[in-house]
Amino acid sequence: MVKRMKMKRVLLIALMAIMLLPTVSFAASNKKEVRTAFDGNITNNSLAVSPDEQLAIVSDSRESSIRIYDLDKDKLKKVIDGFVTPRNILFVDGGSTFVVSDSTLGTLRFYRTKNFALKDEVAVGPGAFGTAVSPDGKTLYVNNQAHSSVTVVDLEKRQPTAVITGFAQPRQGIKVSPDGKSIFVTNFQGDKISVIDAATNKIIREITGFSMIRGISISTDGGTLYAANSGRNSISAVNTVDGSIKNEIQVGREPYGASLSPDGELLFASNKADNTINVINVADQRIVKTMDGFNEPRQAIVFSKDGERSYVLNRDLSIARVDVETLSITDTIQEESKRYKLNMLKSDKFGKYLTDQEGMTLYYFTKDEPDVSNCKGQCLENWPPFYAENIVAPKGFDKKEFKTIVRDDGQKQTTYKGHPLYYFVKDKQVGDVNGQGVNDVWFILGKKAFEK
Q: Which residues does UniProt assign to the signal peptide (predicted)?
């Protein structure tokens, strides 16, 4: 693996836990070995964006690798293998290093951001899950769902300094207060939040009243905590001083994420079952918009430092980039092979027009309504619906205007500026435009289609 890789010794309690639980190999090896997941029944994903917004690193606990995307070029840059159940990713050391927790390996792996080389590996015991860094960047807190504990790691020395017990399956949810004095830890069992005093490393109180608690966020003044309740489809606004729930905001189905914008004005509530994000205005705690187009969004949401963009991880490990001003997806970053590239062809008679990835002509129907297809029955036999995901639009077409509708018959269909798109059965080869002008209601799409 990497020469001079340092393996740090863990505290006695963690070492005992490792010896008592199924053996896993922490040693470097050039051979690919199949490891049984320690807690594979628990699934989650993670997203970290570098401070300079050049890189995004993603993971899914069902995948044995992590992926690194170049955010400037919007493409996959590198895949790092060798994990079993990667749980959480964070940038530390001012962005020069990123750390990945793996609950089966029971370690924290530290990589150099510059060349993605493995720098250090710290054993914290199987079950290592969510992580959070103190505001001064010196301390890392690691949830351990198997031991119901939180391990405190000195980031300068790269070694554990304490193990705090008394939790009930702490998983991904853990946040440090802006002043660094308190750590808020979600407990999957018991639906509660444990509050740690950072000075003493002791649990000082608990906050209850949640339902299948997931992601949490804390306001910049530290006074309010927002928690996603996937059990009752809501976001709880909690007074961090007395632990009371001040308000309950109803959102979509199975909310997992509750992410605050840097200025604290907006909260993104990601709904895994709805494939949507509810945007909540923090001032009056009302939903101002519901964004769609995501794929099982969970807790993995990251805002840019200036708050102008947000990055949302999808189920397939693609990343939706969101314009926070317009509250819309501007593009999706993913592996090149998963993109669907529309094309433009030129006809001597009709000029340039839109085609699918294979060059077959696409049409629109003037009798359709916005986002509604009125082509049914016999019509569909002659004009089959066109559908594709992750579209790359040709020059002159706005990618954001390509969306998906679900027809009355249950089929998905792609639309452009609200107009459903179709093929024509009499087009047999690339370059055919036999459907152009049929009955004066069927037309090809040029760059200026639907312009007023």
A: 1-27
- Using a 10 angstrom Cβ sphere, with 0-12 exposed, 13-18 middle and 19 or more buried, the burial of residue 224 is buried
Q: Which residues of the chain have pLDDT under 50?
A: 1-32
Task: List the domains of the chain with CATH numbers.
Answer: 6-334 (2.130.10.10), 339-444 (no CATH)
Q: In this predicted structure, what is the pLDDT of residue 71?
A: 96
Q: What is the pLDDT of residue 27?
A: 38
pLDDT value at residue 19:
37
Q: Could you tell me the CA-to-CA distances from 437 to 386, 434, 443 in Å, in that order?
A: 18, 8, 5
Please report the pLDDT score of residue 331 as a whole number. 86
The whole-angstrom separation of Cα 327 and Cα 348 is: 40
Note whether 240 and 225 are within 8 A (CB).
yes
Beta bridge partners of 248: 236
Quick count: other Cβ atoms within 10 Å of Cβ 6?
12
Q: What's the DSSP call for residue 94? A: G
State the virtual CA torsion across 78, 84, 88, 94 in degrees, nearest 10.
-50
Which pLDDT score is estimated for 399?
A: 84
Both tokens of 259, joined, read: 């992410």
How far is the C-alpha of 168 from the C-alpha of 187, rounded, in Å?
5
Of 392, 373, 374, 382, the closest CA to residue 423 belongs to 382
In this prediction, residue 452 carries a pLDDT of 60
